[in-house]
Amino acid sequence: SQQGEEDPQALSIQEGENATMNCSYKTSINNLQWYRQNSGRGLVHLILIRSNEREKHSGRLRVTLDTSKKSSSLLITASRAADTASYFCATGGKAAGNKLTFGGGTRVLVKP
Amino acid sequence: KAGVTQTPRYLIKTRGQQVTLSCSPISGHRSVSWYQQTPGQGLQFLFEYFSETQRNKGNFPGRFSGRQFSNSRSEMNVSTLELGDSALYLCASSLQGDSGANVLTFGAGSRLTVL
User: Fold this and answer.
1) Are A43 and B100 inside 8 Å of each other by CB?
2) CA of B43: which chain A residue's CA is closest?
3) Nearest to B3 by CA among B114, B108, B112
4) CA of B14 to nearest chain A CA: how many angstroms apart?
């Protein structure tokens, strides 16, 4: 079963606008990661935020984490057509290993 | 350096057959994980191998199995295929595997269609 729920399921914006998507999860986590997937291909890692961090930036990406609300958000600023993809949050637990539990994803369409 | 390589990329099987998928991780990566992606269930964890040992396992029936070789290459096998096994199977590798805090590098996936 999936750990997280992502909101919205789909998002359509114009190039240059910001895109915000949210992820909620259920259990205690060690870290939360965001991945991007283009059109049914492999996933590409975007950013990782640890449970003791509240905010992290990487280029045009900003991720926040609120462990008290068990939620995270991903903000893409000044979006480009190339940002069109599905975005997934994934949580890593405290147990050893690389088992990630993925959310259902947000499909983002950036119109030129 | 080369990324994660999955073969075959596409395959079609019929119900009852079995299939073997292969994954070559990034050189030096010792952890290999497998995920199944379907429109209905999303991305679901199958299993993870580290140093030839299965370290974690998802909630899949015993028809799904895997192994890892001494060179870290991994294979997964699905026996007695069912229509519901049609999916994109993704392999991911990681440098090491402690506390799930490592970034996964995914392959392009193997798309299995079961007729």
Assistant:
1) no
2) A102
3) B108
4) 22
Q: What is the nearest CA distance from B57 to chain A, expressed in angstroms?
A: 8
User: Which residue in B59, B88, B99 is closest to A30 by CB distance?
Assistant: B99
Per DSSP, helices labelled H in chain B are: none
Question: Searching chain A, which residue's CA lies closest to the CA of residue B58?
Answer: A99
Residue of A32, A49, A5 whose CA lies nearest to A93:
A32
B61/B82 Cα distance (integer angstroms): 12
Return per-residue pLDDT of chain A as tens, 112 residues. 445 688 899 999 999 999 999 999 988 888 899 999 998 788 999 999 999 999 999 999 999 999 999 999 999 999 999 999 999 999 986 665 678 889 999 999 999 9
Our CA-based measurement puts residue A13 at a distance from the nearest CA of chain B, in whole angstroms, of 23
Angle at B33 between CA B5 and CA B22, to 5 degrees: 40
CA separation for the pair B83, B12 (Å, rounded):
11
Q: Tell me the pLDDT of chain B (115 aa) as tens digits.
A: 689 999 999 999 999 999 999 999 999 999 999 999 999 899 999 999 998 999 889 999 999 999 999 999 999 999 999 999 999 999 999 986 555 567 899 999 999 999 9
Do residues A80 and A18 lie in contact, with contact meaning Cβ atoms separated by under 8 Å?
no
